Fold this sequence. Notes:
CATH architecture of the largest domain: Alpha-Beta Complex
Helix content: 25-40%
Distance between the termini: 51 Å
CATH topology of the largest domain: inorganic pyrophosphatase (n-terminal core)
Largest sheet: 6 strands, parallel
Number of strands: 23
Strand order of the largest sheet: 3-2-1-16-17-18
Radius of gyration: 37 Å
CATH superfamily of the largest domain: inorganic pyrophosphatase (n-terminal core)
Number of domains: 4
Strand content: 15-25%
Amino acid sequence: MTNNAPKIVHVVGHRNPDTDSVCSAIGYAHFKNLTDKRFLFAPARAGKLNEETVFVLKRFGVPAPNELESLTPTVSDLEMKRPISVMTGDSVQALAHVMREKGVRALPVVDETGRLAGMVGLKDIASHYMDSVGFTDIADNPISLDILIRTLDARMVSNTKKAGHLAGRIITASMQKGTILNRVRPGDIVIIGDLQDIQLDVIRIGCSAVIVVDGMPISQEVIAAAEAQDTILISSPHSAFATVQLMTMSEPVSSIMSADAQPVGIYTPIAELRQRILDSEYRSAVVVDSDNRLIGFVTRTNLLTPVRKRAILVDHNEISQAVDGIEEAEIIEIIDHHRVGDISTVAPIYVYNDPIGSTCTVVAGMMFLYQVHIPAEIAGVLLSGILSDTLLLTLSTTTERDRQAAHRLGELAGVSVQEYGKELLHASINTEGKTAAELIEADFKEFVISGRRLGVSQMMVLDCGEIDLREEELLAELERLRATHGYDLAVLLVTNPLSAKQERVLLRGETWIVEKAFNVKVEDGTCILPRVLSRKKDFIPAIGLALSMAGPG
Length: 553
């Protein structure tokens, strides 16, 4: 939030992150932090980790990336200096001095614990000054003696009762003696010059305080009388007129502030913050923490420059798969291996989209090219991403570059690709105790093809009999997803990695699309396809071709 804070770039994969998405984010953030010192690159994830990814990170001792719920800019993205504030007990004059010195029109007010108490601005000072015309009585609004002494730069001569506040009518002794004595009543505050006889008279009458102006000397006789009568005696260096004016400015800030500050938090969206500032009579907003302590102050000036989070997208380039708020973010790079999607940018950016088996292969290739150091744990997570996305290098999307990268990373990680691949496979295939929703959402992606919205999930099992037993509830969950999100087609691809013959498909919605794409018959929401193990290379392209041939409607 300050000018010294590092500029963060979030390296993030798609929603419902799989292992390739998370591991490529970790690997690419590591690579960028070594090769680009302009920013701090932070790996992130756009959802809950699946069991396979949890296994991978634990296996190689790599902390899980923070979950990024949205790229919508918030108050935390603003570059704000340490806020200037005043305290509730400060005088109005001290407030005016701070505002003049700092060149500001409004300030937050805090209490003695640093918690927000309210807001105050020039308009409040002006209103207070106008209201103080004819300032003659503070009986109902006592002034703190400490504040008064500071404001007047005065000297306390006598205060035998150790009073903390000054109260009463204010009488300026600028007329004849008889008139003064006729007007003064017990409890009044008398402002007077070097008229010693009148000073003694008003003390004897029982005034609560005598303020001697112009820095005039005060005799010992007057001091003794004040002490005897418990009268407060003050020496002011100012004229009588200036002293009265300054007394009006001796009231505490709390007496003129607005207690309705309506603060914001660091995670308040910038759009909401902007509206708050526009609606505020102070044209500003106060930022507080969860304990209502002041941490920032935002004015319209802070919003002159557009505020956007920075992000690098890995393993996807479609809005439907991106983290919330992607449209408001500044995308600076895209690293992917899928089809080209619908994300657009205002300025030219670096895009590396390579049709190979895994985004982790792309990241590893960059590291090899730049000859940067690849720690064993980073090599391990990149290897895991490759093996996961290529199903142990067996999918039709697997290239020779995937195989070469996997074996090289295996050496750096100190593991056997074949043996570790078996560990990873067993960690990824676990349906026991999971609901239908958990099974489908574990690896679920959205696609928009020829104007139709598709939701496609893929899961692996070693025993297809498990799916037979749960077919009804899985189909029901697909229908719920379809209806809730407005998909034209919701699909679950069930893959048995030990079988190379066929793949089971469960679907709800416009099932004719799958029938046309693969020349099969869908019965009771299910069908069998030829060996289709890749969503992006085998399933989605065939669906796209079928829809393009079908034409509109």
